[in-house]
Design brief:
There is one protein chain. This protein has 29 helices and 6 strands. With about 900 residues, it is an all-alpha fold. It has a two-stranded antiparallel sheet. A two-stranded antiparallel sheet has the order 3-4. This is BQ2448_360 protein.
C-alpha cells in the first residue's frame, strides 16, 4: 500500500527470541560464582527472559496501519512499559553480569538498496549474532527512538496540538539517538583499535544520520505550522519562514552527508556488500534538502521585494529555480508520492495550491521583466547573496528514563531491579586481578627469590667421592660459579658429616628423622593417599552421575521422537539442547583424567622411596649407617680439619637461612589465607561508584589494590635481608673451600705450593684413602637418608595440593550435576507435556475411527521418563488398534501394557 505521509519513521530493529537466556545465566552462576547459589537467581533469570520475550512480541506486532501504530507506540512510550523497563533492566544487569555472557541475534535495519523508507516496509537480511549486553541495550534504546519517530509520523497533523505532538516525537527520537551516540564507545575493543562495526547499521555515522533526519523532520513540522499560521503569534512573515526553511535544509543536508559517509565507510569493512542506507532513503533526504533550499530562497525573495532589494530578489529566485530543477533530476524510485507532490505543490496562503516550480518560474519571469523595465538592478550572484540566518526550533530532547535508568529503577518507576543481590561481575574481575597481582608478587618477590637463594646456597659443593674432600675443593668452587649441580645431588652435607662424624649419627639426620616422625611419617603419607583416592572417587561419581543423566535424557528423547515421529519435533533435539552441558562434562572429564595420571606419579614416587622413608622415620638408623671408627683421622691435617668444620658450620647457617625462607613462605600462605576482606572492600568501592551513577572499570579499584598489596611488603623485605645474608655466607664458603685447597698440603695460606707439588700431594692423599671403602658406604647411607627427607617433603606437598585440587573440582562437578538435574527435569516435563498433547490428539482420531469404545480391564500405566524399572502387568485385555485417517496404526488411550510392547518413554 502506497504511503500517504510526506515524512518517514525510523525502521524498528528486529531481533529473535532467546529461549536459553535464563538457563545460560543460571549455568554461568553455577560454574563461576562462589558467593551466589544458582537457585538464588533463577527467578530473576526467568523474569529477564519473560521481559525480553514481551519486548520482542511488542516489536513484532508493529504494523503499517496508522491507527494500530499510534495505539501501540502510545502504550510503549509510557515509562512503565516493557520496552522502557527492559532497557532499564539491561542498564542494571550490565553491572552484574559479564558483557559477553549471552549471544543475541539482531537484524540490520536495511538489507538492500531498494528498501523503501516507509514504516514497516524495510527489507531485512539474516540476523547478526552479537555476544554483547552493551549491543543488546543499545539496540533496545534505538527501538525506543524508532517508536518515538513512528508515533510522530503517524500523528495526523490537522491542528496545532497534533503538530506539537509530532514535533515532540521527532525531538524525543533525536534525543534518544544522541544518547545512543554517547554509549557507542562501550562497543569499542581496546585490544583492537581498528575494530570493524559489529553491525552495518550500527556505526556512529549511521546513527548521526538518523538523528539529523529526525531533527530535520521536527523542524519541518515547525515550518509547516508557521506556514499554516497556527502558531500563537499568528501568521509568520516571509523572512521568518525562510529562516525556518533554511534550517530544515541544513538538517537534511547534514543527515544526507552522514548517510553517505556511513555507506562509504562500509566499503572498507567486512560489510562492504551490505547497505547502511537504501538508495530510496538517500533520495528522500536529497529531495527534501533541495525542496527546502528552494522554499527558503523563494520566501526570502518575497522579503527582498518588500524591502526594494530587487537584485537580491532576482538572485534568490534564480537559486531557487536551479535548486528545484536539480532536485527533479534525483531518482524518485521508492520515494513516497506525497514527498514528490510537496516538491511540485506549494501551500501558499492556504487557498491556491500551485506547483512550486511554476510559482518560482512565474515569479522569476515577473521580477526579471520588472527589473528590466523599471528597477534596472543588477541581479545579485549566489556568492554575493546575504546568507539566510537559520532559526533552529527543533531540539534533541532526552527523557530522564533514558539518561538515568538506574535511578528510575531504584525508585521503582521501571520495576524492581533484577539480580540485585548478585555481586557485580566487575567485582569478580577486580578480585581476580588483585589475586593475580598478589600471586605474581609472591612468586616474583618471595618464591622465585627463595628458589634462587636455595640453589645458590646448595651449589656450595665438594665431591660425591668423599676421598676427594680436600684435593678437589678448587674444582668444586669452579662448579659453584657455573652452578652445575645442587647440594642434594652432590651430597655435601652427607660428605662432610661422614668426615667429621665417622662414628655417630649427624645431628642433621637426627633432626630430619624427628621432624618426619612428628608429622606422622609414612603413615601420614599413606593416609593422605587414601584421602586423595577417596575424594577422587567422589568426584568421579559426581561426573558419572551427570553423564548418566545426560545419556538417559538423550535416550528418552530418542524414544519420544521414535514413538511420535514428527510430532515431537516442536522442541530442540537432545544433541542440540545438551551441547553446553556435554562440553562442560567433557572438559571436567579431561581434568579428572589428567589428575588421575598425576596421582599415579605421586604413588609411584612413594613406592620408589618407601623403604628409605621407613628407615628415616624408624628406629634402625644406627644399623643402617655404617660406623668407620677412627681410621678416617689418618692423613687429615689440622688445617684441613679446621676448614672442613668451618664449611660444616657455614652450611648449617645456610640451612637455617633456608628454614627461615620456608618460614617466609609459610607466612605468605597464612597472609593469603587470611586475606579475605579484599572482596568486601572492592564491593564497597563498586557500590560507591554505582551510587554516583558511574560505570565500573578496573582503574577505579587501583587504590584498593595498592592498599591491600602493601600487606605483603614485609615478606619482600624479609626475603631481601635473607638473600643478602645468604650471599655473604656463600662467599664465605667459597673462601673456605679455596683456602682448604691451598692448605691441604703445607697448611699455610701465605705459602701456597706449586701446582705440580699440589698434584703429587693430592694423589698421595687419594691413594691413602681408597683403602677404606667403609667411608664411601657411610656417605651413601647418609645421602639416602637426606634424599628421603626431601622426597618426604615433596610427596607431602603433592598430596596436600591434590586434596585442595579435588576440593575445588568437587564444587565444579556439583554445579554441573545440579545443572544437569535441572535440565533433565525441564526436558522431562516438556516431554510429558508433548506426550499428553500427542496422546490426546491420537485419542481423538481413534474415537472418530471407532464406532464403539473398546473396554479394557485396566488403564495403561503412566511410565515416568525417570523410571528405569519395567512395570509388571497384572491384568491382560485384548484391544483393537485404531487407525488414523492416514492409515498409520495408533494406540488406543487406556490400552493395558503388555511386555511384548516394550517401554516407550514420554
Amino acid at each position: 500500500m502506497a504511503s500517504t505521509n510526506n515524512l518517514v519513521a525510523l525502521p524498528l530493529k528486529r531481533t529473535e527470541g532467546l529461549p536459553s537466556l535464563a538457563s545460560s545465566v543460571v549455568e554461568h552462576i553455577a560454574s563461576t560464582s562462589d558467593t551466589t547459589h544458582p537457585d538464588a537467581i533463577q527467578a530473576d533469570a526467568r523474569i529477564w527472559s519473560q521481559q525480553r520475550n514481551k519486548m520482542v512480541a511488542k516489536l513484532d506486532s508493529a504494523g503499517v496501519d496508522a491507527d494500530t501504530i499510534v495505539q501501540l507506540t502510545a502504550s510503549v512510550l509510557r515509562p512503565d512499559d516493557v520496552v522502557y523497563s527492559y532497557y532499564a533492566q539491561l542498564s542494571f544487569i550490565i553491572t552484574k553480569l559479564p558483557i559477553d555472557l549471552i549471544e543475541f541475534h539482531w537484524y540490520p535495519l536495511f538489507a538492500s538498496s531498494t528498501s523503501a523508507p516507509v514504516v514497516g516496509a524495510f527489507d531485512s537480511a539474516a540476523s547478526i549474532p552479537v555476544a554483547s549486553l552493551h549491543f543488546e541495550r543499545m539496540a533496545v534504546l534505538y527501538n525506543i527512538a524508532a517508536i518515538h519517530s513512528i508515533l510522530a509520523t503517524a500523528t495526523k497533523r490537522i491542528d496545532e496540538a497534533a503538530m506539537k505532538s509530532s514535533i515532540a516525537g521527532f525531538q524525543n527520537a533525536a534525543g534518544v539517538l544522541s544518547h545512543l551516540l554517547i554509549l557507542f564507545p562501550l562497543l569499542a575493543d581496546d585490544a583492537d583499535p581498528e575494530q570493524e562495526p559489529i553491525s552495518p547499521d550500527f556505526t556512529p555515522e549511521s546513527i548521526e544520520a538518523l538523528r539529523d533526519l529526525c531533527l530535520a523532520q521536527a523542524q519541518e513540522v515547525f515550518w509547516q505550522n508557521g506556514v499554516l499560521g497556527r502558531l500563537h503569534a499568528g501568521r509568520l512573515k516571509n523572512g521568518t519562514i525562510s529562516k525556518l526553511a533554511v534550517q530544515v535544509y541544513l538538517h537534511y543536508c547534514s543527515a544526507l552527508a552522514s548517510a553517505n559517509a556511513a555507506k562509504t565507510k562500509l566499503k572498507e569493512t567486512q560489510w562492504r556488500g551490505a547497505w547502511a542506507f537504501p538508495e530510496s532513503l538517500l533520495s528522500y533526504m536529497a529531495i527534501k534538502a533541495g525542496h527546502f533550499n528552494a522554499v527558503a530562497q523563494y520566501r526570502k525573495s518575497i522579503d527582498d521585494l518588500g524591502a526594494n532589494r530587487y537584485g537580491d530578489e532576482i538572485g534568490r529566485l534564480e537559486v531557487a529555480d536551479a535548486a528545484v530543477k536539480k532536485t527533479l533530476t534525483v531518482s524518485k524510485r521508492g520515494v513516497a508520492d506525497p514527498v514528490i507532490r510537496d516538491l511540485k505543490v506549494a501551500a501558499d496562503d492556504g487557498a491556491i495550491h500551485q506547483s512550486l516550480q511554476t510559482v518560482i518560474t512565474d515569479n522569476l519571469a515577473r521580477a526579471t521583466k520588472d527589473n528590466d523595465l523599471i528597477y534596472l538592478s543588477t541581479p545579485t550572484p549566489l556568492s554575493s547573496l546575504p546568507a539566510i540566518t537559520p532559526a533552529a526550533m527543533a531540539r534533541a530532547t532526552t527523557a530522564a528514563e533514558v539518561v538515568s535508568p538506574l535511578h528510575h529503577l531504584k525508585i521503582g518507576k521501571l520495576g524492581k531491579p533484577l539480580f540485585e543481590g548478585l555481586v557485580p561481575w566487575q567485582v569478580h574481575a577486580a578480585v581476580k586481578v588483585y589475586e593475580d597481582r598478589r600471586e605474581t608478587f609472591i612468586k616474583d618477590e618471595v618464591l622465585e627469590k627463595k628458589g634462587a637463594l636455595d640453589a645458590l646456597s646448595t651449589r656450595c659443593v665438594l665431591s660425591r667421592d668423599i676421598l676427594d674432600v680436600s684435593a678437589r675443593l678448587e674444582t668444586e668452587c669452579y662448579r659453584l660459579d657455573r652452578g652445575y649441580r645442587t647440594l642434594q645431588e652432590l651430597n655435601l652435607p652427607a660428605a662432610i658429616d661422614a668426615v667429621l662424624q665417622p662414628t655417630a649419627l649427624p645431628s642433621s639426620v637426627l633432626d630430619q628423622s624427628r621432624e618426619v616422625k612428628a608429622e606422622g611419617g609414612t603413615e601420614k603419607l599413606r593416609s593422605l593417599m587414601q584421602d586423595v583416592r577417596r575424594v577422587a572417587r567422589v568426584n568421579q561419581k559426581l561426573l558419572n552421575e551427570s553423564v548418566s543423566l545426560l545419556s538417559q535424557e538423550s535416550l528418552e528423547d530418542g524414544q519420544l521422537q521414535a514413538q511420535y515421529s514428527g510430532g515431537a519435533n516442536r522442541r530442540a533435539g537432545s544433541g542440540e539442547a545438551q551441547a553446553a552441558l556435554k562440553t562442560r562434562a567433557d572438559n571436567l572429564g579431561g581434568v579428572m583424567a589428567a589428575a588421575g595420571q598425576s596421582d599415579q606419579l605421586v604413588r609411584r614416587k612413594f613406592g620408589e622411596w618407601e623403604a628409605r622413608l621407613e628407615l628415616l622415620c624408624g628406629d634402625e638408623l644406627d644399623e643402617f649407617v655404617p660406623q668407620i671408627g677412627a681410621s678416617l683421622a689418618y692423613g687429615l691435617k689440622t688445617t684441613q680439619s679446621t676448614t672442613i668444620r668451618r664449611l660444616r658450620s657455614l652450611i648449617d647457617d645456610l640451612h637455617e637461612l633456608r628454614s627461615a625462607r620456608q618460614s617466609i613462605i609459610d607466612e605468605s600462605r597464612r597472609l593469603v589465607d587470611a586475606d579475605t576482606s579484599v572482596r568486601s572492600k572492592i564491593e564497597q568501592a563498586a557500590n560507591e561508584f554505582l551510587k554516583k551513577g558511574g560505570s565500573l572499570s578496573m582503574s577505579m579499584f587501583e587504590v584498593v589494590f595498592e592498599t591491600e598489596l602493601a600487606k605483603f611488603d614485609g615478606l619482600k623485605q624479609a626475603m631481601e635481608q635473607n638473600g643478602a645474608r645468604t650471599e655473604d655466607l656463600v662467599g664465605d664458603v667459597k673462601v673456605s673451600q679455596c683456602g682448604a685447597q691451598r692448605t691441604c698440603v703445607v697448611g699455610s695460606k701465605a705459602n701456597p705450593i706449586s701446582d705440580a707439588a699440589m698434584q703429587t700431594a693430592h694423589a698421595s692423599f687419594i691413594d691413602s684413602r681408597r683403602t677404606d671403602p667403609a667411608l664411601a658406604k657411610r656417605a651413601q647411607a647418609l645421602e639416602d637418608l637426606d634424599g628421603a627427607y626431601h622426597k618426604y617433603r615433596e610427596i607431602l606437598t603433592n598430596l596436600r595440593e591434590g586434596l585442595g585440587f579435588y576440593a575445588d573440582l568437587a564444587r565444579l562437578l556439583t554445579g554441573l550435576r545440579d545443572s544437569v538435574k535441572e535440565f533433565a527435569q525441564v526436558r522431562g516435563d516438556e516431554a510429558r507435556h508433548i506426550e499428553q498433547e500427542l496422546r490426546a490428539h491420537t485419542g481423538n482420531l481413534s474415537t472418530q475411527s471407532e464406532p464403539k469404545a473398546v473396554e479394557v480391564e485396566e488403564p495403561r500405566r503412566r511410565i515416568s521418563p525417570r523410571k528405569k524399572g519395567v512395570p509388571k502387568s497384572t491384568t491382560t485385555a485384548s484391544a483393537v488398534p485404531a487407525t488414523s485417517s492416514s492409515g498409520a496404526a495408533a494406540e488406543l488411550p487406556g490400552k493395558a501394557w503388555d511386555p511384548s510392547m516394550g517401554i516407550r518413554f514420554g
